[in-house]
Amino acid sequence: MTAPGPLTPMSPPGSSAPVGPDASRSVAGRMLAVLDAFDASHRSLSLTALARRAGLPLATAHRLVASLTRWGALERDATGAYHIGLRLWEVATLSPRGVGVREAALPFMEDLYEATHENVQLAVRDGLEVVYVELISGHSAVQVRTRVGSRWPLHATGVGLVLLAYGPPRLYERVCARPLRRYTDLTIQDPHRLRATLAEVRRTGIAVSDRQITMDGLSIAAPVRGPRGEVVASLSVVVPAAEGRAPGLVPAVRVAAHGISRTLAAALGQEPVAEASGR
Predict the structure, then answer these.
(1) How far apart are CA 40 and CA 91, in angstroms?
(2) Does Phosphoprotein count among this protein's keywords (predicted)?
(3) How far does Cα 82 stand from its chain's mean position?
């Protein structure tokens, strides 16, 4: 199984922008289509493949790719193929929702890894998906399908269930407005079951995603809160589902998430708001 790709052939999630050679698209929109042509399965693309995946005429793609390459958003290798450039990564590191939380979280993630020697993950919500902003993997830990920068749906992941449970009131309706994607026989696909699961997450402050993405992995996740008590991220540890370790790891995940929350509050000179079971 591979990570889910773009929802449309190069339209961002939730976008209604047309796909294909459409002269009505702005220059900025066409440039974004070029960048959106890359994903986990397409890290290196020829100019022809870029044009096709971006839905652009070859001449237009050539002009835009040249501009993006001069700026550093794209780089061209010795074979003539293009890939994402370091300049774009440099700009991305300025995002406070990703990098700021990541910097606060890393010491606690490292402690959690040392205590478990399992995969430790940090994610934030972007629309109807989670984006993983940091991952510490163990050599002998269960294999995970996530990577830094990858996107997964809210309903099927431990971190996603946390972010969905503490998200805006209408987020649940938006998620359930379309079919819930199935990855295994245990993936939540029933909106009523999802609603009950989210209520339990809010009651306990912990989400458990049991074999919903792969049949060998179980995720335990907890919320990371900002200074005002809002949930800004989610921390999880992924363990082999067959080992039955989830109950024993809940306190460690909870303590690590609370430590990150305190660090985020201290960075602004504030005391963290006490956790509550509701929104």
Answers:
(1) 19
(2) no
(3) 24
3-state DSSP assignment of residue 15: coil
Mean pLDDT of 6-12: 37
Angle at 17 between CA 11 and CA 19, to 5 degrees: 65
CA distance 1 to 212: 13
220 Cβ partners below 8 Å, 6+ apart?
Answer: 158, 206, 207, 208, 236, 237, 239, 246, 249, 250, 253
Q: Report which of 172, 174, 163, 168 is spatially closest to residue 236, judged by C-alpha positions.
A: 163
Angle between helical axes of 27-36 and 47-54 (0-180°, round to 10): 110
For 194, the token pair is: 């999802």
Residue 231 CA to residue 223 CA, distance in Å, equals 6
CA distance 162 to 125: 10
Q: What are 170's two structure tokens?
A: 């209408």
Query: So what's the pLDDT on residue 268?
Result: 57
Eight-class DSSP state of 208: E
Closest CA to 220 of 201, 194, 203, 199: 201
Three-class SS state of 111: helix
Residue 110 CA to residue 176 CA, distance in Å, equals 35
- Per DSSP, 126 falls in state E
Q: Is 115 helix (H, G, I), strand (E, B) or coil?
A: helix
Residue 31 has pLDDT above 50, yes or no: yes
121 DSSP β-pair partners? 135, 236
The rounded distance, in Å, linking the Cα atoms of 279 and 274 is 12
Instruction: State whether residue 265 is helix, strand or coil.
Output: helix
